[in-house]
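Much of our argument rests on the idea that a fold can be written as discrete symbols. The record that follows shows the chain in one-letter code together with its fold in token form.
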Amino acid sequence: MTAISPGETWTLRLVEKKKIDAREMWCWRRMLGVLWTEFRTDISILQEIGIKKRLLALVQSRILKFFGHVSRLESDSIERLVVQGKVEGTRGRGRSPMRWTDQIKSAVGGPLHKCTRLSASREKWRMLVGSLTSSPQRRLMMTTTTLPRV
């Protein structure tokens, strides 16, 4: 897909995740010719089309696969240094920015050194990425639901 070709290096905050979901659903609604006045839920549209994997799940799996690839590189590789390195000095005031590695840690549910150790085995990392991005609970979290009209 050309729409997400640089997606491996994106840092996805909640705002970007919502925008990706909204754009994906807008495209599906346009392709089906569903008007906004029909008040159809996103879940009903996804079931009609038969979508198995959402765009956000695809992006997240590519991010995790890229992390696994970079983590398996030699320790003196520039890519690994950029992804896993730390910057010396003090950070400016204000809220901490979300880093690319923060989304890896939150997806796997552990510290970065645990993620790096897990990614050392390619087969285990692929199974972990597959389970994280295709489990029904994760799919529900990545599905935009609408509240019923009152």
Observations:
- Residues 13-82+100-141 form one domain.
- The chain has one domain: 13-82+100-141.
- Residues 137-150 have pLDDT under 50 and may be disordered.
- The two ends are 39 Å apart (CA to CA).
